[in-house]
Structures are given as structure tokens and as C-alpha cells.
Amino acid sequence: MRIEFRRRNLRSLCYLYSMQQLNFPGYTFRFKNRENKPLIFDEVRKKFVLLTPEEWVRQHCVRFLNIELNYPLSHINVEKQITVHKTTKRYDIVVFNTDGSIHLVVECKAPQVEISQEVFDQVARYNFVLRANYLMVSNGLSHYFCTLDYEQEQYHFLKALPGYDSK
Fold first, then answer.
1. pLDDT digits (tens, 9 = 90+) for 78-102
2. Number of domains in the chain
3. Rounded Cα gap, residues 103 and 69, in angstroms
4. What's the rounded Cα separation, in Å, for the pair 57 and 107?
5. Tally of CB atoms within 10 A around 155
6. Which of 80, 119, 135, 159 counts the most CB atoms within 10 A of its CB?
């Protein structure tokens, strides 16, 4: 992990080192400190965002999709609002197909959050509106991939997601 600070701050540096090692390949990130708060650079949003445990997982997922599965950053969208059953929600990551349809919805949780049925229900509710081909749920330690059978309303779990080249 490469750490870049414009200003050194011991508290933020300690916070960065306390971020949990995740079950992803090692990626390089840019960090900085603002008002004693650690920030991480989001390659999709093109800005620094507050580094929280969930954001740590989200940034690893973006890198995984881009580097390991070859999804172009231009096809990836992060933290946008959607309306689900008259309620405003915010998805973590969406990957678009070249025709603008949604290929993948990713729900990220902090490492200490257990991946439960409730988490799958959450991403399924989002997908009711988004209608993605694939779903991914990750807390950075455990990753689940599935596709949804819309007629039977069932998940079909996969060992891995298809890469961009195999779509």
C-alpha cells in the first residue's frame, strides 16, 4: 500500500494502518488528510472521500472490478441515489453494459458486518429497480456473486463473476 499525504498527521496515519487487511489482491491507493480526517481518492468519482471501513471495502471492490475483471472505469458508477418503493436509497457500485443497461450491482459492507439474508434482501430490493444481470455482495473478507432468476425469484450463486471480455 502506497501512502501519500500532503500533510503528515499521526492520528490519520494510525487510522490508515488500523484499516483491516481485506481478501483482495494488494492495490495502491492515494490518501490525504483534511481537518484530521483521513481521505481516500476515488478513481470513479475523481475526488477524495472520507475513509470509513465501508469505503475501504468499496474502493477495493472498484479496483477488483477494474483490474482483475477488466471492467472500464467509465462503465462503473459509485454511490448514486435510486428510488425503491417510494424511498430514496443509495447503491454502492453499479457496472453498466455498453448499451447503458445495468450489468452488475455491488453492495459493500464494512468488514465487521456479517453478510446475512438481510444484506441479500437489500441488494435484491435495489435490483428490483435496477434489473442487473449479476449481483455481488462483499464485506471485504467474504464475497458472494449471483445472478437472479426473475421468473422464479431465486438467487443462483456463482463461483466468480464473468470478466468484461467474456460478457
1. 987 777 777 777 889 999 999 999 9
2. 1
3. 13
4. 10
5. 16
6. 135
